[in-house]
Amino acid sequence: MAMKQKTVLVTGSSGLIGSEAVEQFDRHGHRVLGIDNNMRREFFGPAGDTLWNLERLKRITKRFTHVDLDIRDRTGLEDLFRSTHFDVIIHCAAQPSHDKARDIPLADFEVNALGTVNLLEATRQHCPEAVFLFMSTNKVYGDAPNEIPLAELETRYDYSRKEDFAGVNETCRIDRSLHSLFGASKAAADLVAQEYGRYFRMNVGIFRGGCLTGPSHSGVELHGFLSYLVKATLNGWNYSVFGYKGKQVRDNIHSGDIVSAMAEFAANPRPGEVYNMGGGRENSISVLEAIERIEQMAGKKLPWRYVEEARKGDHICYISDLSKFKSHYPNWEITRGLDSILEEMVGSKKSRQAAAGH
Ligand SMILES: NC(=O)c1ccc[n+]([C@@H]2O[C@H](COP(=O)([O-])OP(=O)(O)OC[C@H]3O[C@@H](n4cnc5c(N)ncnc54)[C@H](O)[C@@H]3O)[C@@H](O)[C@H]2O)c1
Asked: What share of the chain is helix, strand, coil (3-state, %, to 5)?
């Protein structure tokens, strides 16, 4: 992160990726302002509460200021951008759940799509030279990746053709597929962000995340696959696996590796570029495999059941092809493998449980 001191705005700063961005940019000497209104609690109830993470950030950072602001509040954003000049904007605030969106289509669209336009436009008006990074998702492809021919193996699905081995790249189409309302609101934001890059030539980059993970996730059943699986195993909670025999594959990337990719982009921005950003083949795992690996690490069995019906628009096998990002930013690589991600998660959940006295 060899940039001279910058003023960085992080939205969703109490969430998984936002908090990691706060930590890393603060550690590298930048001034960080974070926006988060703890809306994750409103979406998912007490288990989604992110205040513990905000308190943690306040304890460990040097130059971090938190603002309790809603990204839907255009006037509030206007005041903030008028009073502070930002060099980098890292936009992570979102309604992040594929399944939750069906219950709250309006709030989902307002936060994900409108909130993003609010931020892009405030940037254009007040600091058009800034680097703007938008955390998008692989759900913008809808279920189009399911058209890739698959082979069924003992514990997972995998691509059957050699040419698909590296995974899904950015040429996958984003329309004429089933997305979920979440995928659609994120796709709207993703397209608008691209326009601010391509049309206005602003330094906007778009990261389409696979499964993002790390110890600072307030994991809930509807969002945060590995985090919730670890929590459920440690607590002995019943877990449901939906469809595809539990052989559906996700690629997982540690929040630290996402943020180091952001720092690479911020140092050398390429206007309007879109990158698939997941763990890649090395960090891919099926639900069945994840259950087994976590049970071994936690030393406990997870009580789980199988539900025949798959989640609507779910990916059967999704592996992010990282070659485009790697070719543009050859200094970047994945530093955290699956075992190290899982061990850290099990360790941190155990110590949070111990601290909470249960
Ligand atoms: N976690 C994943 O697996 C994953 C995968 C692909 C893409 N993404 C994307 O990455 C981004 C970050 O995801 P995350 O896992 O850190 O999510 P998260 O839920 O942990 O963090 C999002 C934060 O935004 C805050 N927030 C929500 N609505 C807000 C609003 N209106 N105003 C201000 N703050 C608000 C929440 O309180 C929360 O702290 C999101 O855009 C998400 O769609 C996540």
From this structure: 45, 20, 35
